[in-house]
Amino acid sequence: MLQTLGLSPDATAVYQVMLDHPGHGVDGIAATCRLTSAQVHACLDELGQLMLVRASRDHPGRLRAVDPEIGLADMVARQEAELAARQAQLAASRAAVTRMVADRAEHRAGHGERLLGMDAIQDRLERLCRAAQTEIIGVQPGIQQQEDLNAGRDHDLAALGRGVAMRTLYQDIARGHAHIVAYGHTLLSHGGEVRTAPTIPQRLVIVDRSHALVPIDPANTRKGALHVTEPGIVAALFELFEQAWNTAVPLGAARPEDPRTGLTDHERELLRLLGTGLTDEAVGQRLGLTDRTIRRQVASIMERLGAASRFEAGIKAAQRGWL
Protein backbone atom coordinates (compact mmCIF):
# COMPACT_ATOMS: atom_id res chain seq x y z
CA MET A 1 0.00 0.00 0.00
CA LEU A 2 2.84 2.40 0.81
CA GLN A 3 4.06 2.13 -2.77
CA THR A 4 1.12 4.32 -3.78
CA LEU A 5 2.67 7.01 -1.59
CA GLY A 6 5.96 6.83 -3.50
CA LEU A 7 7.82 4.31 -1.32
CA SER A 8 9.79 1.51 -3.00
CA PRO A 9 8.97 -2.12 -2.11
CA ASP A 10 12.31 -2.64 -0.31
CA ALA A 11 11.92 0.57 1.69
CA THR A 12 8.37 -0.45 2.58
CA ALA A 13 9.64 -3.79 3.90
CA VAL A 14 12.42 -2.12 5.90
CA TYR A 15 9.96 0.38 7.41
CA GLN A 16 7.62 -2.45 8.42
CA VAL A 17 10.42 -4.42 10.07
CA MET A 18 11.57 -1.34 11.98
CA LEU A 19 8.03 -0.85 13.27
CA ASP A 20 7.63 -4.51 14.25
CA HIS A 21 11.17 -4.97 15.63
CA PRO A 22 12.40 -1.60 16.91
CA GLY A 23 15.50 -3.21 18.44
CA HIS A 24 16.83 -4.53 15.13
CA GLY A 25 19.99 -2.98 13.79
CA VAL A 26 21.03 -2.92 10.14
CA ASP A 27 22.14 -6.56 10.20
CA GLY A 28 18.87 -7.70 11.79
CA ILE A 29 16.82 -5.73 9.30
CA ALA A 30 18.88 -7.10 6.41
CA ALA A 31 18.39 -10.69 7.58
CA THR A 32 14.63 -10.26 8.08
CA CYS A 33 14.11 -8.52 4.73
CA ARG A 34 16.63 -10.71 2.88
CA LEU A 35 18.56 -7.65 1.75
CA THR A 36 22.22 -6.72 1.87
CA SER A 37 23.49 -4.15 4.35
CA ALA A 38 24.08 -1.74 1.47
CA GLN A 39 20.50 -2.16 0.33
CA VAL A 40 19.22 -1.51 3.85
CA HIS A 41 21.29 1.67 4.07
CA ALA A 42 19.84 2.81 0.73
CA CYS A 43 16.34 2.14 2.05
CA LEU A 44 17.11 4.08 5.23
CA ASP A 45 18.22 7.01 3.09
CA GLU A 46 14.94 6.80 1.17
CA LEU A 47 12.93 6.64 4.40
CA GLY A 48 14.91 9.54 5.78
CA GLN A 49 14.11 11.71 2.77
CA LEU A 50 10.42 11.00 3.35
CA MET A 51 10.85 11.70 7.08
CA LEU A 52 9.69 8.20 8.07
CA VAL A 53 12.77 7.52 10.23
CA ARG A 54 14.50 9.63 12.86
CA ALA A 55 17.58 9.39 15.04
CA SER A 56 16.93 7.30 18.16
CA ARG A 57 17.45 8.99 21.50
CA ASP A 58 17.66 5.66 23.29
CA HIS A 59 20.25 4.20 20.92
CA PRO A 60 22.65 6.90 19.65
CA GLY A 61 23.78 6.29 16.09
CA ARG A 62 20.74 4.19 15.29
CA LEU A 63 17.55 5.20 13.45
CA ARG A 64 14.00 4.50 14.60
CA ALA A 65 10.79 4.31 12.58
CA VAL A 66 8.34 7.19 12.95
CA ASP A 67 4.84 6.11 14.00
CA PRO A 68 2.67 5.66 10.85
CA GLU A 69 -0.07 7.90 12.22
CA ILE A 70 2.46 10.73 12.21
CA GLY A 71 4.85 9.89 9.39
CA LEU A 72 2.30 8.72 6.82
CA ALA A 73 -0.11 11.53 7.65
CA ASP A 74 2.71 13.99 6.99
CA MET A 75 3.49 12.26 3.68
CA VAL A 76 -0.15 12.46 2.61
CA ALA A 77 -0.28 16.12 3.60
CA ARG A 78 2.83 16.87 1.53
CA GLN A 79 1.44 15.00 -1.47
CA GLU A 80 -1.87 16.82 -1.15
CA ALA A 81 0.01 20.13 -1.12
CA GLU A 82 1.99 19.10 -4.20
CA LEU A 83 -1.20 17.99 -5.96
CA ALA A 84 -2.91 21.27 -5.11
CA ALA A 85 0.10 23.15 -6.47
CA ARG A 86 0.03 21.15 -9.72
CA GLN A 87 -3.71 21.73 -10.09
CA ALA A 88 -3.24 25.43 -9.46
CA GLN A 89 -0.48 25.52 -12.07
CA LEU A 90 -2.70 23.76 -14.62
CA ALA A 91 -5.58 26.12 -13.85
CA ALA A 92 -3.23 29.08 -14.25
CA SER A 93 -2.02 27.71 -17.58
CA ARG A 94 -5.56 27.32 -18.84
CA ALA A 95 -6.46 30.81 -17.64
CA ALA A 96 -3.35 32.21 -19.33
CA VAL A 97 -4.30 30.56 -22.62
CA THR A 98 -7.83 31.95 -22.36
CA ARG A 99 -6.53 35.45 -21.62
CA MET A 100 -4.03 35.18 -24.46
CA VAL A 101 -6.76 34.17 -26.89
CA ALA A 102 -8.95 37.07 -25.82
CA ASP A 103 -6.17 39.66 -25.84
CA ARG A 104 -4.68 38.67 -29.16
CA ALA A 105 -8.04 38.36 -30.87
CA GLU A 106 -9.05 41.77 -29.51
CA HIS A 107 -5.90 43.67 -30.48
CA ARG A 108 -4.80 41.87 -33.62
CA ALA A 109 -7.73 41.80 -36.03
CA GLY A 110 -5.55 40.20 -38.69
CA HIS A 111 -5.26 37.03 -36.58
CA GLY A 112 -8.69 36.82 -34.97
CA GLU A 113 -12.32 37.84 -35.24
CA ARG A 114 -15.25 38.15 -32.85
CA LEU A 115 -18.38 36.26 -33.92
CA LEU A 116 -21.51 37.42 -32.11
CA GLY A 117 -24.48 35.08 -31.76
CA MET A 118 -25.20 31.51 -32.78
CA ASP A 119 -25.95 32.36 -36.42
CA ALA A 120 -22.50 33.89 -36.89
CA ILE A 121 -20.86 30.91 -35.16
CA GLN A 122 -22.79 28.40 -37.27
CA ASP A 123 -21.95 30.20 -40.50
CA ARG A 124 -18.25 30.23 -39.65
CA LEU A 125 -18.26 26.54 -38.63
CA GLU A 126 -19.89 25.64 -41.94
CA ARG A 127 -17.22 27.56 -43.88
CA LEU A 128 -14.40 25.99 -41.89
CA CYS A 129 -15.81 22.46 -42.25
CA ARG A 130 -16.18 22.88 -46.00
CA ALA A 131 -12.59 24.13 -46.28
CA ALA A 132 -11.10 21.52 -43.91
CA GLN A 133 -8.43 19.36 -45.51
CA THR A 134 -6.88 17.19 -42.78
CA GLU A 135 -8.55 17.30 -39.36
CA ILE A 136 -11.46 18.72 -37.35
CA ILE A 137 -11.28 18.63 -33.55
CA GLY A 138 -14.23 19.38 -31.27
CA VAL A 139 -14.58 19.69 -27.49
CA GLN A 140 -18.20 19.70 -26.34
CA PRO A 141 -18.67 20.08 -22.56
CA GLY A 142 -22.10 19.80 -20.98
CA ILE A 143 -25.12 18.64 -23.00
CA GLN A 144 -25.58 19.72 -26.58
CA GLN A 145 -29.10 20.41 -27.76
CA GLN A 146 -30.61 18.28 -30.51
CA GLU A 147 -30.97 21.28 -32.83
CA ASP A 148 -27.28 22.13 -32.47
CA LEU A 149 -26.32 18.58 -33.42
CA ASN A 150 -28.69 18.66 -36.38
CA ALA A 151 -27.24 21.98 -37.56
CA GLY A 152 -23.75 20.51 -37.94
CA ARG A 153 -24.65 16.99 -39.02
CA ASP A 154 -24.47 17.39 -42.82
CA HIS A 155 -21.21 19.32 -42.72
CA ASP A 156 -19.61 16.82 -40.32
CA LEU A 157 -20.56 13.85 -42.49
CA ALA A 158 -19.48 15.63 -45.66
CA ALA A 159 -16.04 16.32 -44.15
CA LEU A 160 -15.69 12.69 -43.05
CA GLY A 161 -16.74 11.62 -46.54
CA ARG A 162 -13.84 13.65 -47.99
CA GLY A 163 -11.40 11.79 -45.74
CA VAL A 164 -11.00 14.53 -43.14
CA ALA A 165 -10.10 13.07 -39.72
CA MET A 166 -12.52 14.05 -36.97
CA ARG A 167 -12.04 13.74 -33.21
CA THR A 168 -14.83 14.77 -30.84
CA LEU A 169 -14.57 14.91 -27.05
CA TYR A 170 -17.66 14.91 -24.80
CA GLN A 171 -18.09 14.83 -21.05
CA ASP A 172 -19.03 11.49 -19.46
CA ILE A 173 -22.50 12.83 -18.65
CA ALA A 174 -23.23 12.79 -22.39
CA ARG A 175 -23.37 8.99 -22.20
CA GLY A 176 -26.70 9.34 -20.38
CA HIS A 177 -28.33 11.31 -23.21
CA ALA A 178 -29.58 9.17 -26.09
CA HIS A 179 -29.49 11.89 -28.77
CA ILE A 180 -25.80 12.64 -28.12
CA VAL A 181 -24.85 8.95 -27.98
CA ALA A 182 -26.72 8.36 -31.25
CA TYR A 183 -24.91 11.27 -32.89
CA GLY A 184 -21.58 10.01 -31.57
CA HIS A 185 -22.21 6.58 -33.06
CA THR A 186 -23.12 8.22 -36.36
CA LEU A 187 -19.72 9.90 -36.42
CA LEU A 188 -18.06 6.61 -35.48
CA SER A 189 -19.83 4.76 -38.28
CA HIS A 190 -18.45 7.27 -40.80
CA GLY A 191 -14.85 7.01 -39.57
CA GLY A 192 -14.75 9.63 -36.85
CA GLU A 193 -13.43 9.17 -33.30
CA VAL A 194 -15.46 9.99 -30.19
CA ARG A 195 -14.30 9.88 -26.58
CA THR A 196 -15.58 11.04 -23.20
CA ALA A 197 -13.91 12.18 -19.96
CA PRO A 198 -15.23 13.35 -16.56
CA THR A 199 -13.94 16.90 -17.08
CA ILE A 200 -12.78 18.45 -20.32
CA PRO A 201 -11.54 21.89 -21.47
CA GLN A 202 -13.94 24.64 -22.50
CA ARG A 203 -15.91 24.37 -25.74
CA LEU A 204 -13.47 24.38 -28.64
CA VAL A 205 -13.23 23.65 -32.36
CA ILE A 206 -9.88 23.39 -34.17
CA VAL A 207 -9.68 22.95 -37.94
CA ASP A 208 -6.50 21.82 -39.68
CA ARG A 209 -4.56 23.00 -36.60
CA SER A 210 -4.67 26.51 -38.09
CA HIS A 211 -8.12 27.81 -37.09
CA ALA A 212 -9.72 27.69 -33.64
CA LEU A 213 -13.10 28.79 -32.31
CA VAL A 214 -13.49 29.38 -28.56
CA PRO A 215 -16.37 30.99 -26.63
CA ILE A 216 -16.26 34.69 -25.82
CA ASP A 217 -17.97 33.79 -22.53
CA PRO A 218 -17.41 30.16 -21.40
CA ALA A 219 -20.39 30.50 -19.03
CA ASN A 220 -22.70 31.27 -21.99
CA THR A 221 -21.31 29.84 -25.20
CA ARG A 222 -24.29 31.08 -27.23
CA LYS A 223 -23.19 34.72 -26.89
CA GLY A 224 -20.44 34.37 -29.44
CA ALA A 225 -17.01 33.03 -30.24
CA LEU A 226 -13.49 34.12 -31.08
CA HIS A 227 -12.11 32.84 -34.38
CA VAL A 228 -8.35 32.62 -33.81
CA THR A 229 -5.70 31.92 -36.44
CA GLU A 230 -2.46 32.90 -34.72
CA PRO A 231 -0.23 29.77 -34.75
CA GLY A 232 1.04 30.09 -31.16
CA ILE A 233 -2.47 30.34 -29.70
CA VAL A 234 -3.88 27.55 -31.86
CA ALA A 235 -0.96 25.31 -30.89
CA ALA A 236 -1.58 25.99 -27.17
CA LEU A 237 -5.28 25.16 -27.54
CA PHE A 238 -4.42 21.99 -29.44
CA GLU A 239 -2.06 20.92 -26.63
CA LEU A 240 -4.87 21.34 -24.08
CA PHE A 241 -7.09 19.16 -26.25
CA GLU A 242 -4.42 16.47 -26.59
CA GLN A 243 -3.97 16.28 -22.81
CA ALA A 244 -7.70 15.69 -22.32
CA TRP A 245 -8.00 13.32 -25.31
CA ASN A 246 -5.20 11.05 -24.10
CA THR A 247 -6.99 10.37 -20.80
CA ALA A 248 -10.49 9.99 -22.30
CA VAL A 249 -12.30 6.71 -23.07
CA PRO A 250 -13.79 5.78 -26.49
CA LEU A 251 -17.57 6.16 -26.61
CA GLY A 252 -18.10 2.46 -27.29
CA ALA A 253 -16.09 1.41 -24.21
CA ALA A 254 -17.28 1.40 -20.61
CA ARG A 255 -15.31 3.12 -17.88
CA PRO A 256 -14.33 0.23 -15.57
CA GLU A 257 -13.88 0.66 -11.87
CA ASP A 258 -10.33 0.58 -10.57
CA PRO A 259 -10.08 -2.90 -8.98
CA ARG A 260 -7.81 -1.50 -6.27
CA THR A 261 -10.26 1.14 -5.08
CA GLY A 262 -13.68 0.43 -6.55
CA LEU A 263 -13.72 3.99 -7.91
CA THR A 264 -14.59 5.02 -11.43
CA ASP A 265 -12.57 7.76 -13.15
CA HIS A 266 -15.57 10.04 -12.63
CA GLU A 267 -15.61 9.40 -8.86
CA ARG A 268 -11.85 9.91 -8.61
CA GLU A 269 -12.19 13.22 -10.47
CA LEU A 270 -15.00 14.20 -8.10
CA LEU A 271 -12.76 13.53 -5.09
CA ARG A 272 -9.89 15.43 -6.67
CA LEU A 273 -12.01 18.50 -7.39
CA LEU A 274 -13.49 18.54 -3.89
CA GLY A 275 -9.97 18.16 -2.50
CA THR A 276 -8.95 21.41 -4.19
CA GLY A 277 -11.53 23.26 -2.09
CA LEU A 278 -14.22 23.74 -4.75
CA THR A 279 -17.85 23.95 -3.63
CA ASP A 280 -20.47 21.39 -4.70
CA GLU A 281 -21.83 23.98 -7.13
CA ALA A 282 -18.41 24.59 -8.70
CA VAL A 283 -17.69 20.85 -8.95
CA GLY A 284 -21.12 20.31 -10.50
CA GLN A 285 -20.36 22.93 -13.15
CA ARG A 286 -17.06 21.24 -13.98
CA LEU A 287 -18.65 17.78 -14.21
CA GLY A 288 -21.95 18.93 -15.71
CA LEU A 289 -23.97 17.62 -12.75
CA THR A 290 -26.47 19.10 -10.28
CA ASP A 291 -25.59 19.88 -6.65
CA ARG A 292 -27.97 17.12 -5.58
CA THR A 293 -26.17 14.54 -7.72
CA ILE A 294 -22.80 15.64 -6.36
CA ARG A 295 -24.03 15.27 -2.76
CA ARG A 296 -25.45 11.81 -3.50
CA GLN A 297 -22.19 10.61 -5.04
CA VAL A 298 -20.13 12.03 -2.17
CA ALA A 299 -22.42 10.25 0.31
CA SER A 300 -21.83 6.97 -1.54
CA ILE A 301 -18.05 7.41 -1.40
CA MET A 302 -18.20 8.32 2.32
CA GLU A 303 -20.19 5.16 3.01
CA ARG A 304 -17.60 3.00 1.23
CA LEU A 305 -14.84 4.65 3.23
CA GLY A 306 -16.71 4.41 6.52
CA ALA A 307 -16.24 8.16 6.99
CA ALA A 308 -18.50 10.36 9.11
CA SER A 309 -17.50 13.63 7.41
CA ARG A 310 -16.08 14.87 4.14
CA PHE A 311 -12.85 15.82 5.87
CA GLU A 312 -12.48 12.31 7.25
CA ALA A 313 -13.33 10.89 3.82
CA GLY A 314 -10.57 12.98 2.25
CA ILE A 315 -8.01 11.75 4.76
CA LYS A 316 -9.04 8.10 4.35
CA ALA A 317 -9.11 8.35 0.57
CA ALA A 318 -5.58 9.77 0.56
CA GLN A 319 -4.34 7.13 3.02
CA ARG A 320 -5.72 4.37 0.80
CA GLY A 321 -4.10 5.85 -2.27
CA TRP A 322 -7.43 6.67 -3.93
CA LEU A 323 -6.25 10.12 -4.97
TrEMBL record:
Q: What is this protein called?
A: LuxR C-terminal-related transcriptional regulator
Q: Which domain of life is it from?
A: Bacteria
The record, for InterPro entries, names: Sig_transdc_resp-reg_C-effctor, TrmB-like, Tscrpt_reg_LuxR_C, WH-like_DNA-bd_sf
Task: Mark the transmembrane ranges.
Answer: none
PROSITE patterns in the cross-refs: HTH_LUXR_2
Any one Pfam family match given in the protein's UniProt record, by short name: GerE
Tell me the ranges covered by the HTH luxR-type domain, including all copies.
256-321
